[in-house]
Automatic annotation (TrEMBL), chain A:
Protein name: Sulfatase-modifying factor enzyme-like domain-containing protein
Phylogenetic classification of the source organism: Bacteria, Pseudomonadati, Bacteroidota, Flavobacteriia, Flavobacteriales
Domain of life from the UniProt record: Bacteria
Domain Sulfatase-modifying factor enzyme-like: 43-251
Listed GO MF terms: formylglycine-generating oxidase activity
Gene3D superfamilies: paralog of FGE (formylglycine-generating enzyme)
TrEMBL record, chain B:
Identification of the protein by name: Photosynthetic protein synthase I
Domain called Heavy metal binding: residue spans: 32-58
SUPFAM superfamilies linked to this entry: Thioredoxin-like (SSF52833)
Disulfide bonds: C112-C116
Binding positions for Cu cation per the UniProt entry: C112, C116
Length: 257, 238
């Protein structure tokens, strides 16, 4: 009897490890404390261990989601949740005119969030995303390397990278692809950035910290790439659907008893 | 007498038809505006570029008309949001339960020392200046951005402290996730900068009785004339 119970437990434990420790397509990110590239008064933030999708969500994956969840299809989506550009690459509700392996773009924050929730995941936070994004192929924090910054900035200058397919850029230190070089990505708390143009007047604190002077005030000029990302996040609204803005999902690490 | 009535009816019918015709024409007219709003709300009837900033004019998005199959509210209505909120009295509600009133909403947190007392004052000021007719049909709502600290009990205490524990005042809190989503709908940004401190946008939003956003006042201590005008208009349109 005892052995039987033991076996059952063993089987459950094994499956739990397979099922939860590293779901397919996700990689483990070991958390740590770091100073974001461009943070409010450069405070240290803490990122806990978490899982992140190795690739951005593709057109094909998003289509599968749309088929199962018709209320997010182009014709059915509530205007509250997406602007008129939503799924512009779709010729009808379930047909898109793009490469199936290209990142899904023209997706609003609400739709991206719903997609992740359907997979039992969530969108990564800005702190998590930036933490993974500061790695290059060999180091977890490559921000001091001139080559790292140079690559990102030259990508920002390259048009139409959203047409490329996922997984063509070298994987980074964590085993994550396409953090840079393909599309910009939604974050769960994208609306925690207070550096929109309006913030000069409508934010109660540090109103002088942002806008023009902020780039100059950032700790070093190489922070410019990150500053652009934060500024972009601060300037968009959750229902915006943008050509070069995609997303990937993240997940908390489940502790196995 | 009968003829007179008939004539009146016909006349009314004719006038209303004409009115409807006009609005439809207006709705259908394609207008273009500068994406930067250099000239305020000025629109053009042709494509082209803005005379001030030279940017291409963009088409003005027509108002949403598609009705929700389950109710009478439109695509842009916040009554579509399924989240459950708890009031200062511990009652669970959905936003659609507030249907029928004009809603004036602001996001705050009760432990805030800097901006929120001023936002509360702004809200009070707006309420005082509404017409008597409007006051009856308006709900003034505070939504907490700090649901962890702002329990219903805490909201109740805050309401009492500010003499706002009665109509038209209402205090709401929900989960962190629902709060983030609602802020996204209102285009309100906020960030926790320490366990007791948040940085946040100061935006007062006005929703009509169908739950559609009609106006946003941005900033602290700004002139509320426009906000009040929009609230009164929203009430008249009911």
């Amino acid at each position: 009897m005892f052995t039987h119970t033991f076996r059952v437990i063993l089987v459950i434990l094994t499956f739990q490890t397979v099922g939860f420790s590293q779901p397919e397509g996700m990689v483990n990110i070991k958390g740590s404390r770091y100073i974001p590239l461009y943070g409010r008064d450069s405070t240290v933030v803490e990122v806990k261990d978490f899982l992140m999708d190795a690739y951005p969500v593709t057109n094909q994956e998003f289509l599968d989601f749309l088929k199962k969840n018709p209320k997010w299809q182009k014709a059915n989506i509530l205007k509250l949740f997406a602007d008129d550009n939503y799924l512009r690459q779709y010729t009808n509700d379930t047909v898109f005119n793009a490469s199936p392996n290209s990142p899904a773009t023209y997706v609003s924050w609400f739709a991206a969030k719903a997609y992740c929730e359907c997979q039992g995941k969530r969108l990564p936070t800005i702190d998590e995303w930036e933490y993974v994004a500061m790695a290059d192929e060999v180091t977890a924090d490559a921000r001091i390397k001139p080559s790292y910054n140079q690559k990102i900035l030259s990508w920002y200058e390259t048009p139409r990278t959203d047409k490329k397919e996922i997984g063509k850029t070298p994987k980074n230190y964590w085993g994550v692809y396409d953090m840079h070089g393909l599309v910009w990505e939604w974050a769960l708390d994208f609306n925690s950035v207070l550096i929109s143009g309006e913030s000069r007047k409508d934010v109660d604190k540090d109103s002088n910290l942002f806008c023009g002077s902020a780039a100059i005030g950032a700790t070093d000029l190489m922070n410019y790439a990150a500053f652009m990302r934060y500024a972009f996040r601060g300037s968009i609204k959750a229902r915006f659907s943008i050509k070069n803005l995609g997303f990937r999902c993240a997940k908390d690490v489940e502790t196995i008893p | 007498m009968r003829i007179l009535t008939l004539l009146l009816v016909v006349l009314t019918a004719l006038t209303s038809c004409k009115e409807r015709g006009q609005t439809t024409a207006e709705d259908l007219a394609i207008a273009y505006e500068c994406p930067m709003h250099c000239e305020g709300d000025k629109t053009y009837d042709k494509e082209g570029s803005c005379p001030v900033c030279k940017m291409d004019l963009v088409r003005v998005t027509p108002p949403a008309t598609k009705a929700d199959p389950e109710g009478t509210f439109s695509d842009m209505s916040i009554y579509n949001l399924p989240a459950t909120w708890t009031t200062q009295d511990g009652k669970d509600i959905q936003l659609k339960d507030l249907q029928g009133d004009v809603l004036v909403m602001v996001m705050i947190y009760t432990s805030c020392k800097a901006a929120c007392p001023r936002l509360v004052a702004d809200m009070r000021n707006i309420e005082e200046r509404l017409t008597e007719a409007s006051k009856e049909r308006v709900k003034m709502i505070f939504v907490s951005i700090d649901p962890e600290v702002d329990t219903p009990k805490r909201l109740k205490a805050f309401a009492k402290e500010n003499f706002m524990d009665q109509d038209p005042w209402l205090f709401l809190r929900s989960s962190e996730e629902n709060t983030r989503e609602f802020a996204a709908v209102l285009a309100v940004s906020y960030k926790e900068i320490s366990p007791i401190d948040f940085s946040h946008s100061n935006i007062i939003s006005v929703f009509n009785h169908k739950g559609e956003l009609v106006f946003q006042q941005e900033g602290l201590g700004v002139n509320s004339d426009n906000t009040i005008k929009h609230i009164n208009q929203a009430v008249e349109a009911m």
